[in-house]
Automatic annotation (TrEMBL):
Domain of life per record: Bacteria
Key word Transmembrane helix present: yes
Pfam families found in the cross-reference section: Sortase
Annotated stretches, region: Disordered: 1-20, 41-72
Cross-referenced NCBIfam families: class_F_sortase
UniProt keywords, alphabetically: Hydrolase, Membrane, Transmembrane, Transmembrane helix
Matches recorded under InterPro entries: Sortase, Sortase_dom-sf, Sortase_F
Taxonomic classification: Bacteria, Bacillati, Actinomycetota, Actinomycetes, Micromonosporales
Biased composition (Pro residues): 56-66
Transmembrane segments: 78-97
Protein name: Class F sortase
Amino acid sequence: MTRRSARARPDRRARLRAGPALRASGRLVARASRRLRRVAGQAVSASVTTTDPAVRPLPPRRPAGPPSTRLRFGTSPGLPVLAIAALMVLIVAMLGVEQVTGMSLLPDRLSAGLRPPPKKFPVLPASHPTSLAIEKIDLRAPVHDVGIAPDGTIAVPDAARAQEAGWYDQGPTPGQYGPAVIVGHVDTTSGPAVFHKIRELRSGDEIEVTRTDQRVAVFEVNSVEKFDKDRLPVDEVYGDFSRPSLRLITCGGQWVGGETGYADNVVVFASLVKARGG
């Protein structure tokens, strides 16, 4: 799968001065952030590799559009600037309408990172996850710990446990400050695996993670993204320690075969909105 992170920001540390419990949480966050950063330095990409020799690799992706189209835009620098400016004005206007009406007007892919996550959230003490439930895609699966693979990437469940998810045990637990990372296979040579449908999630869908302390951390999906494994945005995926969050990571895109398997990673970005039980 994947890994990375950034140091805790000064404004977050300021919020942690409220009391001893939160100060302790801040120290845990800082250590988790450093661990994620070390892993990030070891490799730029990671994945759940699914190799099926019976499937022929697809040809490499080519840039969209004929060369003449790209050349015309390249020789007229004023046109793309004006087009981007107009698009940004339109997006801002549509976001304003969404805030007033509550209606979703922008595609999730276009608006990724633009809609603010829910403002109110709890913060939970450390506790390992034991199971994952997503009603929207009828997913219920056990969660076990995974560490770092020999190649420096986040380890993934072995093929015999393809219907289970793996929580990266060098990062935050679900509900602590920072991104808790849970990885899983998209499929195997015999059929769909645990994260086969997570690409179908949309903004606002809920993800429930049950922990060993019997508390259930409830996350709300912010966006679902697909990244080339060689161009994974490390800080975006692993670097936000401003609030408790969750990343679900699996494979997607074209099948290229070999050790890579699928060309992309599918990443679900979600934020903690409530907790119950315990």
